[in-house]
Every structure is written in C-alpha cells, then in structure tokens.
Amino acid sequence: MKTKLHYTLIFLWLGIQSYYSQNIADFTSVTPTTQTSGFVLPSSHDFQRIIKVGDVLTAGGNMLTKPDFTAYVPIAGSSTNGYLSVNSEDAPVAVGGTGGGGVTILDINFNNTTKLWETTASQIVDFSSVGSTAANCSGTVTPWGTVISSEEVAFNPIFGLIDFNFDGYNDVGWNVEINPVTKTVIGKHWAMGNMAHENVTIHANERTVYQGADSNPGYLYKFVATNAQDLSSGNLYVYSGSKSGTGAWVQIANTSITERNTTIALSANAGGTVFNGIEDVEIGADGMVYFAVKNEARVYRFTDSDALETSTSTVTMETYVGDMNYDIDDGVSVTSVTWGNGNDNLAFDGQGNLWVFQDGGNNYIWVVKNGHTQANPDVEIFGSAPIGSEPTGITFSPDYNYLFMSMLFLTDPVSNNANQLDAAGNTVNFNTGTTLVVSLKDNLGTLSVDKSSLSNNFNIYPNPLKSSRPLIIQGKQINNIKLYSILGKQLLDMKYNGLNTVNLNLKSFNSGLYLLKVNDKTSKLIIK
C-alpha cells in the first residue's frame, strides 16, 4: 500500500523535473527595441552561423543571395542529421533582380562533442528542367520528406504572360517540389495555381494543402490532391465568407493551361474573400489552420469541418493574434508594444507555441504562447533581426531543440559590423544574408558549455548587460555572488542569506567580458 509520503515524494520529484527542464520557448522577453547591428535574442539562448551569402559550396559556386525559407529535412527522423534547404528570394532579372532566385541544399549534422552543427556537402539545385525559378520565398517540408519551394513573383496579370521556355505556362508563380537527397527538381505543380506564393502547409492526410496569395487582392486556397503524396493533380478551391465567422470553399477551374495561369482572376470571379497579403499558413496541433496576413496586422485561424470533402464542409474563422498592443515583460519592466504589420513566417514548437517572424517595424520574432487568446493575451518577444534585415524561414528539428532560420537583407551586402560571437566562437557581422541555428545555450557550442553551468541552476538577465541597468539573478538559495575578470582576478564578493532574487548594481565596471560565480556555479557575463 502506497503511503502519503510516497505520493508526496513522487509529486516533489515531478516538480523538480518540471522546474529544471527547459524547452526552446523558455525565455524572458528581450527588451522591446529598435533594430541594432546585432541579432538580439535572450541571454538563455545562443546561435551558430551555418552559412552566409557568397560562401563557397562543395559542389561549386557560391551560396545564393537573400536566404529565406530554411527547411530542415531530417534523415530517418533524426534531429541531428539531415538536409538544410535554403531558398533564395531574389527576383528574376526581368523585374530588376540579379540572381533569379534558387535553392541551396546543405548536408548537415550535429557534432555531439563540440555541440556544433557541421556542413559536409553543399549544392545549388538545377531548375533548368522546369524553366528556371525566381523569388523563392517560403515553402514547407512535406510529410513524405521533400521540400516545397514557393515562388513569390507571378507576372500575370501585371506584366502579362512571360514564357521563355515556350511551354505555355507563366515562368514563375508556382510551388516547386524538390528532392533534398538527390538535390533534384520533382516538378512545378501547375494544378495548385499561379500566384505570388509565400508558403503552403500539408495536412496529415498527405492530400490536402492550404496556401495563400501574397498580393492585394490575395486569396486563401485549399488544394486537394487526387492521390496522396502527388501534388501534380487535384481540385483547387478558394475561400469565400467571413473573416470572423463562417464561410465555405468554392471550386475554381484548374485544368487547362489558361485556367492555371489565371488563378487570381478566377478567384475574384468566384467571389473569393480578399486578404491583403497572405504570408504563411500552418496547421497547429489543435487541428486548426493558422495564416498570417501581413497588411492586416493579424494572424487568423480557422477550422475546416472536413479536410477532404468540400461541397458541404464549413470553415469557421477568427483572429488569433494581432491588431492590438501586447504587454511585454522583460523581467524589469512591462512595455505595451504594438503588434504592427508584417507578420510573416509561422511555425509551431513542441509546446504548441506559435513563432511569428515579422517583416517590417522592428522585425521582431514574436512567440504567442499556447493558450493565448485576444481576451487573455500571452505574447512574448524572443528577438529582433539586425539592422537592414528581416528574420525568415523558420523550421524546427523534430525534437524542437533547434530552430533553423535566416537573416535576409534586401540590400546585400550592407555596412553592419556587429562583431557578435556565435556559439562556435566565430565573429558574425551580419552584413550579408546569413543562415543560422538557434537553441538554448546548453544545447549549442563549446562556448555554451562554459556559460551553461549557471543557467541550469540560476537565471541571469540581461546578458549582455548595459552597465546602467541592474543584473537580475534568480534561483533558489543564493548565498554568494562573486565577479572575476577574464584573467581570474576577483573584483566583487557579495554575501546573501539564501535569497531567491538579487538585483546587482554593476555601474562601476567597464565594458568587457567577466566571469560571474553564483554559489559554486560560474558563467560568462558581458557588460556593454
């Protein structure tokens, strides 16, 4: 017979495990700020640069410009061994671009000894078989292990039909499927429609696809493939109805070349509901479909009563987040921050939190916590992209320990010398498009090993620290705090009697790198 003490010990153990276990969404919001020369992120996290624009590739050539969607494709479900497919959101030469877009695929793996990601092969995908590609923006990783790269530029109707390869189709404005293993193109999926594609998301049934047009007018679509894992044929539907209530799917023609080239016009004729710039669409663990509309400053979500059946299926839609101010608590003060326009890339982490990358304003990385409602908001700011860039292309490893993303610069290169150290000890200046991985410090880098011993037991922030602000140290039973120079000279020795929170004034100390010791745990501290 189990005693009360037995159950007490079980609950105590579970509580301790919960207290010390961390996931990538465990952080204190950064202080709301305008963009700086560096990547602003919580002191609990670190990043590693994987590749930057212009780097030499193993298969020849150089890393393409304007990196966007950064798709991690696991090998056999691995969170430490896979392919990283990086889109290039460069416009075609015909509309003023220089590179014409494209995709670079890296073979990457995680070194458990160094706690760093390594690239063993890198190659540009050859799109000549489908008449080239352009403005490769976002996309998705399919349930069957391929990558969809979405072309954001569609010539029709503004520029008219442009068909350099004489196949009858507009040359750009399609979803393109890629095999990351062979680095080859499976095909452009004409039946999914021609538009300024930003992203697609695929239902677990492997037939239903939700997508949107990043234009004004833009429309929300549902594509139901004829066969699972084959997006080359199927029925296309446009949403018609309320943005705060119910609606339905209306089928539009998508069989002939002319019909497939004129998706936007056919959507208007069918009475499709107009959205001003749909950026990304994702399916949550709750089964609801979420989509960002950049110029309406909000993320909508809806339920679809039957993902495959459309004649009587009902769509019920609402605003999930945006179009208002949110209180951001950085651990020192609370600031009311406007959501603003430009909500762009979306992704859910393993706890059901929605990560939202902002294209515009301060180019924030927002995290909308699981359980958030507009009536009871729960929103945090994870970071801000460097000056001149926007955060793009988020995907997670299957265990959700690693977030893959890029910094896209519209002007590339720029003069932006951040001199920011990454987890590998590399100096990163963020003066050109950069692809990187983000994680908790304990999970990433040899430098993080030195910094992690403290974070396992105590929370210190902000770090780096502006000398004008107090350093906040939180944890159980703080008895002693010491500060050392990087050469080991003791500079401060403070005694406490088992406090849980200490506010430490370090105004008298010069900018530089220090060692902070709390009880018997040591970490690096940067004072700016």
Automatic annotation (TrEMBL):
Alphabetized UniProt keyword annotations: Signal
Pfam families per UniProt: PhoX (PF05787), Por_Secre_tail (PF18962)
Domain Secretion system C-terminal sorting stretches: 460-527
Protein name per UniProt: Secretion system C-terminal sorting domain-containing protein
